[in-house]
Predict the 3D structure of the following.
Amino acid sequence: MRENWRSKLSVLAGASALALSAVTATPALADDAPVSPQEVQISADVKIVEGGAATDPAGPVETPVPGGQAEAVEAAKAVPSSSTCLGSTAAYGTSGCFQHNGDIVWAGDTKKDGMSAAVGVYTDYGRAEEVCVNKLGANTWATCNKNYREGGDVRLRVLRYDGDTGKFYQPETWSGWIPVDGKY
């Protein structure tokens, strides 16, 4: 009978310890989540480049009204070809990649949230960092045409950008190193 009492006590103690650990290890509730985006620090001397309307690397975009508003909208909706765009990287609201033939940085804005897509470009040879910003709106792509050293590598950093404040926000993601000449 005494052993039965001890086993019941040990089960009760184990259950109490488990309940206590569940209460103290429970993740924060949604009410405790930050209500605003978290700012990301970028060096003050970074060059911000506004991207232009993207064009399809496979050829020109067909438009119903040459030179009209429809042409700009259609051009901005062009997407990079997966066969020519390397290092595809994405985070909330932003996608980016590097097109080695032409040294073009693609910045895609995938969320309608009042912020712009931003793709930072870093080199392994000391060139000053630059950020390609897509201010064309949600569901569009912008390109920044650059000229990088053929023997070097670039790395992309995608994040959100608020043009009103000039600040960058999380979430952010980094690509791996991408050879400028496209040869892995």
Observations:
- The chain is about 15% helix and 35% strand.
- The longest strand covers residues 153-162.
- Residues 2-24 form the longest helix (23 residues).
